[in-house]
């Protein structure tokens, strides 16, 4: 004999449920968490890019210049000065983008240290208060 189970669901569990939660005091925290996650991604990317740039310098006795940019980590620079000891496959497979879809930037020599590696931040504009750079990490 087969047993039958019946369920009775009460309440509204559609889209209204989620919008109700987003209006609660804790919902305001979601944007703060997104901003923290975006910043952490930038910090992780900057640390990885700095590591690759340090390896480039170790192999070639200098960092790529601003014109060569971060692309020098993916493919050997065609412009002078050439990388003398460039490894097959480069230093990284591809360049990451920041959480806002922008390319990371390199100034070499930098304004804050030997090199400046940075994101132009959510506004997409350089030299504004939302830029996040390796100089804000307490390095180089």
From TrEMBL:
Which residue ranges does the record annotate as region Disordered? 1-39
SUPFAM superfamilies to which the protein is assigned, alphabetical = Pili subunits
Domain (Type II secretion system protein GspG C-terminal) ranges: 29-135
Compartment(s): Membrane
One Pfam match, given by its short name, reads T2SSG
GO CC annotation: membrane; type II protein secretion system complex
User: Which Gene Ontology terms describe the biological processes this protein takes part in?
Assistant: protein secretion by the type II secretion system
- NCBIfam families recorded: typeII_sec_gspG
> What name appears for this protein in its UniProt entry?
Pullulanase G protein
Organism expressing this protein natively = Klebsiella pneumoniae
């Amino acid at each position: 004999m087969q047993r039958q189970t019946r369920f009775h669901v009460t309440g509204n569990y559609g889209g209204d449920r989620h919008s109700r939660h987003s209006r609660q005091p804790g919902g305001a925290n979601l944007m703060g968490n997104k901003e923290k996650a975006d910043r952490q991604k930038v910090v992780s990317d900057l640390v990885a890019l700095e590591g690759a740039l340090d390896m480039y310098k170790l192999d070639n006795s200098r960092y790529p210049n601003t014109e060569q940019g971060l692309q020098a980590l993916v493919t050997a620079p065609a412009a002078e000065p050439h990388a003398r000891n460039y490894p097959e496959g480069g230093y990284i497979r591809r360049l990451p983008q920041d959480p806002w879809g922008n390319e990371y930037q390199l100034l070499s020599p930098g304004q804050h240290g030997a090199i400046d590696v940075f994101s132009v931040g959510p506004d997409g504009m350089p030299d504004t208060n939302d830029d996040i750079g390796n100089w804000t990490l307490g390095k180089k």
